[in-house]
Amino acid sequence: MHWKITALWGGKKVELRETPRAVTPFGGLVVFFEFLRQVGYGQAVRQHLPFRLTSPNAIDPVETFTAFLLAVLAEADFVLHGWLRSGNCGTSRGVVEFLKEALALLPEKHALRVVRADAGFFDQQLLGFLEQRGLAYIVVARLTLWLKREAARITTWRALDEHYAVGEFSWQLFGWDRRRRFVVIREQLRAERASLGRKLLDVPGYTFRVFVTNFALPPEQIWRDYNGRADMENRIAELKHDLAADDFCLREFFATEAAFRSILLLFNLLGEFQRACRFASYRQPATLRAQVFLCGALLGRAGRRLVLHLSVSWGGLKQRIPLLEHLLAYPVSTSPKLHPETAT
């Protein structure tokens, strides 16, 4: 079967035909497949999947799991841990148990420099847990009436520039077991710029941001350090928009959680893939898809060998050879406790 159309420019006839040959728009995924092979992905997934299928006609669960990951990708920084929760849960509910699980997953050779959190986690239980574990923290303070009063009472301000000044105070809120340090950033209101802070009735003309912290750093460094958390908001947006992490709602809660966890795994694999390929800068999943994975390809044979023909118009094999060479030279890191010579 064929069909003829006329080109929009030039007036030439173009014949359209079908082909029974296997065609994929994602031939560039061969690079990612090589990375998965290098890191021992198949064996690790097979080892940790909680079930086995005994039917001789059943599809290997590892293949099904991987197909789901790639389907999400078709639509790096690491995520250490994640929970799927009901939408009506309070922000800080279960945060201590979540952190306990996250810290248990953290390899021994890694340490947390600081825990940063927004006002939804301004909670005595969390702060006490972090202090008990010896962890530094910077948390946005929820501006209760008492904290607003204390911020308004600050008389010693140190100007950072013509618009910003910093101050601090210590205070023990009701229900807390100790006094804690509060750092305050005061910003002068300007018509040409929106402010992120809150206005205080007692101090017109300014907005205020307040952080509680156990870091022994100058207030401006506390503020700048916390602002680095904004990059995590970008990673969350990538999980939602590039990998559809908020688009799954299966019949069972734990099935939905399994889909969510697999997306987190994919996100981390993409981050490590970039390190293995030695990219000069971080690329979002959507960028990887467009620049690396998206490549028209035909699957054919040369004698008894399968051959994947990558389209030159998408960079073909030539553009991907440097990535494959980096992957072949990639040293897969292993936790020391997993080395055979240290096993007991």
Mean pLDDT over the full residue set? 79
Shape: elongated
Percent helix among the residues?
A: 25-40%
| Beta-strand residue fraction | 15-25%
Query: How many domains comprise the coordinates?
Result: 2
Characterize the structure shown.
- The protein is of the alpha+beta class.
- The chain has 2 domains: about 1-75 and about 245-340, no CATH class; about 115-215, no CATH class.
- It is about 35% helix and about 20% strand.
- The protein contains 11 helices and 12 strands.
- It has helices spanning about 30-40, 40-50, 60-75, 95-105, 125-130, 145-150, 220-225, 230-240, 255-275, 285-295, 315-330, and strands spanning about 1-5, 15, 20-25, 115, 135-140, 160, 165-170, 180-190, 200, 205-215, 295-300, 305-310.
- Strands 4, 5, 6, 7, 8, 9 and 10 form a 7-stranded mixed sheet that branches.
- Helix 1 (about 30-40) runs parallel beside helix 11 (about 315-330) and helix 3 crosses helix 9.
- The radius of gyration is 27 Å and the shape is elongated.
